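Working notes for the structural subgroup meeting. M.R. asked for a predicted model of this chain before we commit to crystallization trials. I am recording the input and output together here so anyone reviewing the notebook later can reproduce the run.

Input as submitted:
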Amino acid sequence: MSPSSQCGGKGNLVTRQPTDAARSNQGERLMWITTQRVFYAGLLGAASERSLGGHGVYVSPTGAPLRIRIGGSAWQSGELLVVPPQVPHQVATDHRLILNLLVESESVDPALLPGFLQHCGPVDAPLFVRRVRDAHARLLEASGRESFDGFDFDTLFFGHPLAPRALDARIRAVVDRINADPAAPTSAEECAAAVKLSFSRFLHLFKQETGVPFRAFRAWKRARSLLRHVRQTATLTDIALDTGYPDSTHFSHSIRQVYGLRPSDILAGSRRLAVHQ
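Returned structure, recorded in token form:
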């Protein structure tokens, strides 16, 4: 099922009271970044429409419904919102804080994802919502005292490893190359030559294997790499250059398209954020 055909339906909303852990930890902010996953507990901000490159999951930390508008459609609400990769959407909350998971599209088999992750919009999965809130509490306990190396991301949040996506070895090599250095000026022509494919065949195979066009994939990975810089004291121009953008104007435009926020707003909202990489 394509992302566009998944979106638009409204799931059933089950309202639950927040756990004691979630209630006591309101206002606590952290981010855990791995190559293929991100967990963010922090400010949502006044974000406009965004389009993320991975499977996005939004969870209310308190039980108060979140709101989502997909591609300019009517607003919907729920404690759990799910958005497939590359689907434009806007999320809002009256609480300001949000729990957000991001799963890279090339890392998982979309057909074998848990059922609730194969939807778009509000979804009824109260056990998963409770698991995310409890995982947030566990990470808060560990944050500041130790690294997160002892946690397995998928097991902590989903209860089991998510099924990996089988990629053609040539496309896997290109994906690994971009993940290793998102700031590098990697061109499709260069990648095609490196894996001994014609330019047209490479572009076709890359989209077929990853589900995303090469240019969109590279742009997303570059924008995603900003998350590793949010606690830096460098100037926006320096961060733009470090993440592979030619100048601060291009940087600001690209980041707003992806996150719905200006880079300066993202950095300002991350001042109290504990970042684990």
